[in-house]
Design brief:
- It contains three helices and no strands.
- The chain is an all-alpha fold.
- The protein starts with 5 loop residues before the first helix and ends with a helix.
- The radius of gyration is 24 Å and the shape is elongated.
Length: about 70
């Protein structure tokens, strides 16, 4: 992860204020936070679903099963 200096962070904050205005920034922050929460919930649910599934056969095993079929 890159290292950001204090001057870089200040430049980003000032740019965001100029682009979006002070009234719009809290709304954008809330929307971004909600998006991250939903993403975490979705990935957590996906990982739980994946853990409950039986393990898959390896490719080598499935190829031998296919060649042994009549």
């Amino acid at each position: 992860m890159p290292h950001f200096s204090a001057s870089t962070i200040m430049l980003l904050v000032i740019t965001a204020l100029v682009l979006f205005g002070p009234k719009k920034l809290p709304e954008l922050g809330r929307a971004f936070g909600k998006t991250l929460r939903e993403f975490k919930k979705g990935t957590k649910g996906f990982m739980e679903d994946e853990e409950s599934l039986p393990p898959l056969q390896s490719r080598k095993e499935s190829r031998t099963d296919e060649t042994n079929r009549p």
